[in-house]
């Protein structure tokens, strides 16, 4: 059983199709996904940006909205542009950070992405996250308290520091156990092939 | 017969595999490629950059060198990192601009990319371009003179202004006759499918 780290950020557009696809994509491959929520804010700040690069670089941003619409359509994944963009993702990331080893963790991540990129909901609002957790049948109030504990905040900060130290500069990013990095939803299949070992014609 | 514009820049890393692949990729599709050399410098300047983003944003640059090595290996295309990077591409772009409607034009583009990204040659040096043109059996001296004429310089400036106006922000970029834009070597197949019309599950 090989492990593939999946680094994602809720405000990241291309993390959405990656999060919706990765579960099915690894089925039967022997590759186990480790879901790694982190924050792009500090990483963008290290590159001199105080906003999404898609907002700072408007031509690239215009293209991205068209591209992700086409990509989601090709995957059969519903898509609606979040308004505003980016959505405040801190609280959702904290909940995800304390849910990664819980049975509801992956479903929560997918539900947040669906709320944000398919249903036009405001994922920065605690009420929206509460509703999502309740739909998953877990104790929303106690999870939100735990998510905002100092220990959990520190865990998320630590994950973000680890991402920066590993050379992550955007999301989604996939990293194999032997340290091979793949950036972007487009590279999901290659990352899985690499994690499986010696396949896909891409191991050098 | 549908036309697909292929916008490329000699200093662009991912334009290299795209240039080497596009000829075979369109074979039998009924899609005709229009080779569009342009300069990324003015376009990067409009985004506030005075160097390649892969040099400005070092983590992204480190990843890119690894990724393009993997990609080229998967395609069976030789790869060697140019030194220095980026290579001065102005003169080669001028030659390409005056060669786009000549029988040697496409071969020249591929030969320059091969010289730069496979053979470690300095494509900014007139002698290197002269040797490439001579290998193609054309009159190198007269072509280099024509490439540096005011009319040809103006043509390349015009192409770059057109790229900026069309919203191009990087290379390679593919644009179909109906104005659909695809950015990056990864999107070559989708661009061709779109140009063919109604295929690939991506026409919306």
Short description:
Two copies of one chain form a homodimer. The first copy, chain A, has 204 residues and is of the alpha+beta class.
Q: Overview of this structure, please?
A:
2 copies of one chain form a homodimer. The first copy, chain A, starts with a strand and ends in an 8-residue tail after the last helix. In chain A, helix 5 packs antiparallel against helix 6 (105-117) and helix 7 packs across helix 8 (140-147). Chain A is globular. The longest helix of chain A is centred in the N-terminal third of the chain and has 18 residues, at 58-75. Chain A has helices at residues 15-26, 41-46, 53-56, 58-75, 90-99, 105-117, 126-135, 140-147, 150-165, 188-196; strands at 2-8, 31-37, 173-176, 181-183. With 204 residues, chain A is α+β, with helices and mostly antiparallel strands. Chain A has a 4-stranded mixed β-sheet, with helices on both faces. Chain A has one domain: Glutaredoxin (3-Layer(aba) Sandwich), CATH 3.40.30.10. Chain A is built from 10 helices and 4 strands, in the order βαβααααααααββα. The A-B interface holds A 47, 57, 59-60, 62-63, 66-67, 69-71, 73-74, 167-170, 181-183, 186-187, 190, 200-202, 204 and B 47, 57, 59-60, 62-63, 66-67, 69-71, 73-74, 167-170, 181-183, 186-187, 190, 200-202, 204.
Topology:
Two copies of one chain form a homodimer.
Chain A: E1 2-8, H1 15-26, E2 31-37, H2 41-46, H3 53-56, H4 58-75, H5 90-99, H6 105-117, H7 126-135, H8 140-147, H9 150-165, E3 173-176, E4 181-183, H10 188-196
Parallel strand pairs in A: 1-2
Antiparallel strand pairs in A: 1-3, 3-4
Helix pairs in contact in A: 5-6, 5-8, 5-9, 7-8
């Amino acid at each position: 059983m090989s492990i593939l780290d999946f680094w994602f950020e809720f405000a990241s557009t291309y993390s959405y199709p990656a999060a919706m696809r990765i579960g099915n994509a690894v089925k039967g491959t022997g590759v186990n996904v480790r879901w790694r929520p982190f924050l792009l804010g500090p990483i963008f700040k290290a590159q001199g940006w105080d906003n999404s690069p898609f907002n700072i670089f408007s031509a690239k941003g215009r293209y991205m909205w068209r591209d992700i619409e086409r990509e989601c359509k090709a995957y059969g994944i519903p898509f609606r542009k979040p308004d505003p963009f980016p959505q405040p993702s801190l609280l959702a990331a904290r909940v995800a950070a304390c849910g990664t080893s819980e049975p509801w963790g992956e479903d929560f991540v997918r539900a947040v992405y669906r709320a944000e990129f398919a249903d036009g909901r405001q994922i920065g609002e605690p009420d929206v996250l509460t509703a999502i957790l309740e739909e998953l049948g877990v104790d929303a109030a106690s999870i939100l308290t735990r998510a905002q504990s100092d220990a959990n905040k520190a865990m998320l900060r630590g994950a973000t520091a680890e991402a920066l130290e590993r050379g992550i500069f955007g999301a989604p990013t996939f990293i194999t156990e032997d340290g091979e990095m793949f950036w972007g939803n487009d590279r999901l299949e290659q990352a899985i092939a690499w994690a499986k070992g010696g396949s896909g014609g891409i191991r050098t």
